[in-house]
Amino acid sequence: MSSLQTLYQKDYAAWAEKMAELLKAGKFSELDIEHLLEELASMGTSERNELESRLTILIAHLLKWQFQYQYLSDKWKEFDGRSWRATIIEQRVRLRKRLRKSPGLKANLPEITLEAYEDALELAIKETQLSAATFPSECPYTLEQLLDDDFYP
Q: How far apart are CA 22 and CA 35, in angstroms?
């Protein structure tokens, strides 16, 4: 195992700094290519996973808003959905920020939304205790609606 591979195992931050130095100096033959490729692939996966996680939470809260809000507000006069609204707002803000920082993720949004809907649906069913038949089998919201600050179903 090379000294850079050992450094990667023992001190990731020092390894990353060394990789940056080698890249800046144009010393490409000295790079730890194997681990660099792993890290680059991991970065893309991590960003995609964050986007999916935020979409899951957003969609679950929109489903709860659409299918449970009226029932709860009729049952408890003090229920106003404030915490749901706060979560919806926060997820939209963070989604837009992630998409600004990584615009390449926009191309994957339709696919990621499909994946996120499966988890969001499961979450909404568990949290609301409503029948699965209550909810649409496919995401009822467009990407534009999901990111629209004024959209509440």
A: 14
Domain boundary assignment for the chain: 46-147
Rounded Cα distance between 44 and 70, Å, is: 39
pLDDT tens figures, 30-83:
888 888 888 887 777 888 899 999 999 999 999 998 988 666 655 656 666 778
Q: Contacts for 31-37 with beta carbons within 8 Å, 24 or more apart?
A: 31/4, 32/2, 32/4, 32/5, 32/8, 34/5, 35/4, 35/5, 35/8
Computed over every residue of the chain, the mean pLDDT equals: 88
Taking alpha carbons only, the member of 44, 51, 47 closest to residue 115 is: 51
Q: Around 39, how many Cα atoms within 13 Å sit in the side-chain half-sphere?
A: 15
Closest to 73 (Cα-Cα) out of 44, 110, 19, 65: 65
> How many CB atoms are located within 10 Å of the residue 92 CB?
17
Query: CB burial class (10 A; 0-12, 13-18, 19+) of residue 28?
Result: exposed
Q: Which ranges of the chain would DSSP assign to H, the alpha helix?
A: 3-10, 12-24, 33-67, 69-75, 82-101, 109-128, 143-147
